[in-house]
Amino acid sequence: MNADQIDNPDYADTQLARLAGAIAEPARARMLCSLMDGRARTSTELATVAEVGTSTASVHLGKLLELHLVNVVAQGKHRYYQLASPEVANALESLLLIAGLPRPRFVPTTPDRLRKARTCYDHMAGEVAVGVHDYLLQQAWVKPVNGDDTAYELTAEGVKALEEMGLDIATIRKTRRRFACSCLDWSERTPHLGGALGAALLNLLLSRAWLERDLDSRALGLTLKGKREFQKVFALQT
Q: Which residue from 15, 149, 5, 138 is spatially nearest to 71, judged by alpha carbons?
């Protein structure tokens, strides 16, 4: 959008009408409301929410993508849709308040033993992993690289804190893979920590007996020591 377009009230009105029209369509409104919890969903899941067929859902999602109301994240063979920005979420929240409706609640269907904590290739996933990821961001131990929300770098405070925990950051940086990144969690539908840093953190937690591997699945069990330490170090109620 150029300066002339911004200053042109007709253009602004037209854009507002397009956005309002996209939100007003019932199926698209249901999709957007279901994404208000901050989690991502597949087109199949959103089709179910919207009570439309998968081909119709794809058309609706194309419209929402075109107007920058949602974006799409590729994770393996799946594509997940989420709200495009906090500004979109805030606008929808305001409309829900005007309508007098509560924010929709996400209800996971993953088995409990996998939802709490599990491996995702060589790093930790699940509810606990998402909590650790969020804590690292809240404490400003990690930050996005050049505005890229999928790639992370440690801050000076993060290096100090994680080295005090026992991680060898210099060695982790030497591995021939992405240092740290967000990885969309299968059950929680919000990111956990991946990359070399995520793998090293899982190995450390296993070696410290905070976690123990399940013998016949990807599930990770929290030990009594782990429950105490996750609370102390990451402020997690497990």
A: 149
